[in-house]
Amino acid sequence: MATSKTYLVGGAVRDYLLGLTVHERDYVVVGSTPEALVALGYTQVGKDFPVFLHPTSKEEYALARTERKSGQGYKGFQVHATPDVTLEDDLLRRDLTINAIAQASDGQFIDPYGGQRDIQAKLIRHVSEAFSEDPLRVLRAARFAAHLNHLGFSIATETKALLVTITHSGELATLAKERIWHETHKALHSQSPWVYFEVLEACGALQELMPSVAELLSRRPQALNTLKLLSESNTSTEVRLTGLLYQLNKPQIEDLAAQIKIPNAPKALALATSNHQRQLRAYTELDAAQKHLLLSNLGLIRHTELLDDLLSLCQAITQSQEPLFGWQSPKQHILDDLESIQSVKPAELMAQGYNGKALGEALKKAQIASI
């Protein structure tokens, strides 16, 4: 690669300029070819465009490329990656100005589209009108708004207009369900995940992608409050998602899980919280049979590790719905009851002659009596 040049690009440059921790580094190589990189020991990955893994660091190196819209959706592009593609050409195809800054090996920043200016102004702005050609960028803009909200960033007015334009184009329907969940999961991991849903609602995309959540927010504008409270104390994306979804019923949660490919674990937590959070919050008021049924329905008899997440949700729900009233966590009561339940040994009942269905009924009766 004697005649080629390599630049650090994208998120690593952005986060460095923002004073944030840099987690991964991506590079663009200008003036080279796939054959030249392979000859140097790089491994090609991805079929849509030439991206290579460094032989030792395994960091990603992509050939400078341009893209031309050739069909619908975020995959409807023809990629052009040859040695004559310039760094400025490559940066022009990127989504946001703050992501279109490069850094040379000598530390110099190359910023042809005003990314550093927008960092100073705390603006999330599209690089060019080509932004509207890729529907995935609606979700990315919303995610970056959530990621940078705590630093005071907001989406530029003209970029908001483009989000509406993309939504009205109908191309959101071409997004793969897995990509929608991927962006949503990343947004849930940010410091201000509720902003992601606010941005999508404002441009109409939430109605297209997650209609049950859009209906919830239109009916209950305060529906994001629990998510906001959880985001202050809990970094689990599953718990944060449940802080929004518990307000939906079972069919709505099931439908949403299918629409955006929510994995089984967060779906199960959302369903359990939706169905049982009121009883769990009033745990000490239940009788022994009700407690046993609740602990069984929540899966806590076999999976005690779920308790902290469920109680964290109950705390945030109470704060959101009844901010003037405190809530005494029943954690110790529940742990004591679970210990009592687990002290009942099936082997002892079997020794008394119970088996089959009768054993199950005797076990349940003995567990209730132990509470």
Short description:
The chain has 19 helices and 11 strands. It has 371 residues and is of the alpha+beta class.
Q: How does this structure look, described?
A:
53% of the residues lie in helices and 10% in strands. With 371 residues, it is of the alpha+beta class. The protein has a domain at 1-116: Beta Polymerase, domain 2, CATH 3.30.460.10. Helix 5 packs across helix 8. The protein is elongated.
> What's the CATH topology label of the domain at 1-116?
Beta Polymerase, domain 2
Largest sheet report? 7 strands, mixed
* Strand order across the largest sheet: 3-4-5-2-1-8-9
Q: What structural category arises from helix and sheet content? A: alpha+beta
Mean pLDDT: 93
User: In the CATH hierarchy, what is the superfamily of the domain at 1-116?
Assistant: Beta Polymerase, domain 2
Q: Could you tell me the strand content as a percent range?
A: 5-15%
What is the CATH class of the domain at 1-116? Alpha Beta
Low-confidence stretches: none
Silhouette: elongated
Number of strands: 11
Q: What is the string of helix and strand elements?
A: EHEHEEEEEHEEHEHEHHHHHHHHHHHHHH
Our count of helices gives 19
